[in-house]
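Exercise: predict the structure of this protein bound to coenzyme A.
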Amino acid sequence: MSQSPAPATVELGGGHLLRAATPDDIDDIVTLEVAAFGASDEPRLRAHLNAPATDTQPAGVDDWTVVCQRGRVVSACGLLHHRLWVDGAVVPAGQIEWVATAPGHRRGGLVRAQFSWLHRRATEHGMVVLLVAGIPYLYRRFGYGYGLSWPGTWHLADDSHRRLAHRGQVRIRPAEPRDVAALVSADAHRHQRQVRIERSSDTWARLVSYCRPGGAERLAVAEDRQGDLVGWVKSEHADVERQVWALPSYAATTDVGRALVAHVAAERPPEWSLHLAGGPGAWGATLRATARSTRYDHGIFVRCPDPHALARALVPVWNRRLANSDHHESGELDISLYRTTVRLHLDEGKVTEVGHGPIIEDPFDHADVGVAPDWFGALCFGRWGAQGLAERCDDVTLGRYPGLMGTLFPRLDSDVVCDL
Ligand SMILES: CC(C)(COP(=O)(O)OP(=O)(O)OC[C@H]1O[C@@H](n2cnc3c(N)ncnc32)[C@H](O)[C@@H]1OP(=O)(O)O)[C@@H](O)C(=O)NCCC(=O)NCCS
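Solution:
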């Protein structure tokens, strides 16, 4: 899908000028964002804005937009780069984060205009998926759908950490730069058949650099008697909400998990609530055994601007799934997205090509496969599996291919929280 490059400056009316951010904007952006989201966001925000260019990514601030009026930054947001793993396949992805407009300038289309700009930018970077978390429905207005569920969220009662007090032999301490290699290795224990955002050594190094003991963002590691890293937990003390949030973390055993949960719980200020994001392995098992499950309100927004490109990235995954199934069909499977159709060419149970099929405006008519485009992400990322998606959504149908679609699109777990 080709789009023309973003112009240098766009006039939005009312004296508002939209442009790419520069390093000179960083302090003004931080002021705007801290006013919107609280001081606890500042360390992470500055780390992203000041991130230098790497072999694969431009400098952090280069993918931010600002809207200025009379030289003052009144709206801003940034595009983060990710590699999204989907059941073993890597998909170039982005995330739009820190979306904020100053009071007095809201409802004037400033965010809508920046999203158009950042969508073009994302296409230039070859991103085939975009993620955003936030206000219900808002981003559906910009072509996003609810493509991913939050990993389960768990709540710990006020005094629970006392009974979790660990009797084993782990030491918990703040993470340091020397831990980066071990943190990268620990990520190899994340479930490989899962939707997850890759954390590179650059990601971990940045995390370690902005997390501080006693600060808004904290990263603690657990080490065993030999000094080997056997777990980590990342927590955020959100001052505006008076909540402590822990990301899906890692524990080699449930004993380590209990020690980490007890550690986070003990650090929670009085009267603040504690929320822990679930995940695979011993970390998730610890939460299931010790905390109360709560439902986080809605999913993560996902935009798939080029469904054919996304489909091409998933071909190896589909072929592995087909090889492990009874489906050895040859022929064409058309997945109607109503305005466009993704056609899979199958040859004896192998997807050999992804192309465009004829537009099918009413797939229900002749028992074709139809997926409204804003649910295509949920289909590809296994939010409920093809069958579950069709049961939930009026404009999704598996037509005469429920078995084949179920094989191609099973339900997957995800530990994406849009946050690292
Ligand atoms: C939410 C916020 C970013 C919107 O910025 P904005 O510049 O006013 O947004 P726009 O004027 O471009 O509006 C974009 C669309 O979202 C809608 N919208 C704006 N604010 C909204 C809100 N708070 N809730 C729901 N929808 C909203 C608008 O109606 C508009 O829809 P339309 O284009 O289809 O008419 C701004 O109110 C803000 O900074 N709030 C505080 C920080 C925050 O909550 N950020 C979002 C985190 S997810």
